[in-house]
Write a structure and sequence with these properties.
With 129 residues, the protein is mainly β. The chain contains no helices and eleven strands.
Length: 129
Amino acid sequence: EVSLVESGGGLEESGGSLRLSCATSGFIFSQYAMAWARQAPGKELEWVAVINNGGDSTIYIESVKGRFTISRDNTKNTLMLQLNNLKTEDTAMYHCGKFPMRNIPDMSDWTPRTKFVYWGPGTQVNVSS
């Protein structure tokens, strides 16, 4: 059974940093692309970053480029997201997700609510001004 468990969230001041982790089990981690998405209160779930199975290809939404870094450790079956220079608009529940393929798909064809991506329960990030 697929299991994704996020950790590392918390309260941070604007300009600060956090490092999120996602511990995975129940599937061969190194064979699947992974993603982070977030949902702020009253808003839809949105993609944040995606990484291919090997970790050598990544994409980000415009608002986090240069501030967030997605990475993975295939020896530890763990996905990470480094959040730097946090802004109040980064406040959200952050979820890690498993794609059903190795490579990053054409994201214009995928919405975060697709049934083909498996999401974890999330970790809350709150950024104060």
